[in-house]
Amino acid sequence: MADVEEQARKQSEEFTDESEEEDSEEEPKLKYERLSNGVTEILQKDAASCMTVHDKFLALGTHFGKVYLLDIQGNVTQKFEISSVKINQISLDESGEHVGICSEDGKVQVFGLYTREGFHENFDHTIKVVALHPQFSRSNYKQFVTGGNKLLLYEKNWLNRWKMSVLHEGEGSITNVQWRANLIAWANNVGVKIYDIGTKQRITNVLRDNISLRPDMYPCSLCWKDNSTLIVGWGTSIKICVAKERNPTEMRDLPSRYVEIVSAFETEFFISGLAPLADQLVTLYFVKENSDHMDEEFRARPRLDIIQPLPESCEEISSDALTVRNFQDNECRDYRLEHSEGESLFYIISPKDIVVAKERDQDDHIDWLLEKKKYEEALMAAEISFKNIKRHDVQKIGMAYINHLVEKGDYDSAARKCQKVLGKNMELWENEVYRFKTIGQLKAISQYLPRGDLRLRPAIYEMILHEFLKTDYEGFATLIREWPGELYNNMAIVQAVNDHLKRDPTNRTLLTTLAELYTYDQRYDRALEIYLRLRHKDVYQLIHKHNLFSSIEDKIVLLMDFDKEKAVDMLLDNEDKLSTDRVVEELADRPELLHVYLHKLFKRDHHKGQKYHERQIVLYAEYDRPNLLPFLRDSTHCPLEKALEVCQQRNFVEETVFLLSRMGNCRRALQMIMEELEDVDKAIEFAKEQDDAELWEDLISYSIDKPPFITGLLNNIGTHVDPILLIHRIKEGMEIPNLRDSLVKILQDYNLQILLREGCKKILVADSLSLLQKMHRTQMRGVRVDEENICESCHAAILPSDMAKAFSVVVFHCRHMFHKECLPSSGTIPGVQFCNICSAKKRRPGSGILEMKK
User: Which of 229, 488, 729, 851 is at 20 to 30 A from 372, Cα to Cα?
Assistant: First the structure.
């Protein structure tokens, strides 16, 4: 690290009086390599349409509407699905925290890379360009421009809403736009304009030289060299324009600034891109197909030249022909040149290839970055190419970066970098911890300390915990939760926390942390006491995880007071560890909690807590009447007399009615419904359930002088009682509501009954006839009789051995067979014989179906 610092110091002294541009002159010349890794896979399936370069990353847009964020080596870090068509342009602010994107289908999105909040709009025409204010991340510079057939400026006003204004229109499509400081430069079909956003004035119009070239095939290239110098390349023409302040005496109605073209010259080839390199230019050329002086094999290969511009011409410094993939298929508009000012990297973008041009080797590049104090970029470059660098060491560069951040006072960034830079070097880690302690910034490094397999000495962690305990209880609690207990001496920290609790005994943060420490130390009883005292949500998890049910036998009321539902579920799920009798005993003095427990127990199993059903009657009546009636219905162990007594004392009519009916006193139950509830529908429903003629008679007698009740009976009685009985008992002249409708309903019900009876009768007759025919067919069938059959009376073979002799056999429909002489005489019905066996078994005897004689 000392060598790196000494080298950086010498270089700094050597160029102390030179400008940043002069420093850039010392940057090595270009060399090339293809951007690969994730880019290769992207371009195999897609094609690059645009790319924007930031010092820290790249943003690549494709023809399929995707935007990829890449690191310098081409690895994909983020991917955005913006559209399904070509991405036309991507713009980043200087901080690299916000991005603007436009696509061929008119979509424009401006958002933060870490928040995705911002501007999202769909236009009804193609948007070719978008550019963010370089300081877009600052709240007072929320501005960006978009271009299609108009150049539109969007600004966020004090109401946090986007305001749109037209900067220019009427000269065809906007094909390019670049924003630097307060100046916006854009190109359309006519030429290039520059607008001063500070004075809100357009300050120049640089006309296009060769109007015969199609702007869409040979687009304009714009590049800002600095805050006032714009480089314009169009076709084969290059112009360097400088914005200057106008003399106040010459202003009159003119803009405060004007543009002077300090250099204008023609080139041999078509320009596809421009980039500054100190006072020189890097130019990307599209080589004309008809260049006769070039060999055939080199035609159409793009060229990357470094030129020295002069007032009316240029001097070529270097020139390279690039063999990019599919260069034979590319047009001038297919190439783009993007550059990274911080690292002097130049990116040649074509649809199927991206080539990086950089200066000399990586060691020299890192030297230049260290001179510029761009430690983060130097560290990133060293990490990316650590196998190729020879004079530098990643860890030494990282230590230089950490020292720089500490000197700047950016302690959080310095601590964060320690994690990457120090790695597994425990000695360096301890040195850095003590340095942070010396400058009073232990908190900054605490969250990045090693805590896995590689660990520092316990004293280091304890020192940090004591520091937090003095000044930040919340931070201390966070570290206790995040750090494994093996990192430090648990007992020492417990003692320190107890000392602080003596001064602040009700501090919830300290108490919770102490409970966590006790848990890690397996002193669960103490942790449980604290959690219950704090009513902490983790108490149930602690009990389950460490099987602390024996410790909560006398704390059931506390658990129930904290969260009844969780407590009851836990108790019921672990009945083998905490018996129901024990829980009931603990809750005896808290009947409202006892009811919750017994209610859930009953819901789970109607029989498990049967011995407490009598007690539950009073609990339901006192705390949960809506569930009393369901309980009485479902319980088979509830003493009905006790339940009736409780319900009558509290005048619970519905429950009393149910109990009376269950005890067989249906008449009294019906009387209560009629007299106390005065609900004829419920009374009718009750009578239907009991299906007792005497109840119907009582119901009719009670209702006969109450017209509304008569209406209810007329509407519902027809299917259970003959409505004539009710109608005959209605007094003449009594006015009954809806009598006509009720009588019509009775007639309809009666008609329906008649129809149902007739239908049933038809079905019965049809079924009877069908079965009779089936029986007749069955009885008319022949019955097989052979030598294997025997007489059911004498048990001899039914057929004689000598078939020549005369014989007579009787076979009944029940398939029993007899010799005719073995059958007894006819019964009481003359001429009809019955099977003796079936008659003896008290079946209906079958009559003889067949008589065989010979």
Answer: 229
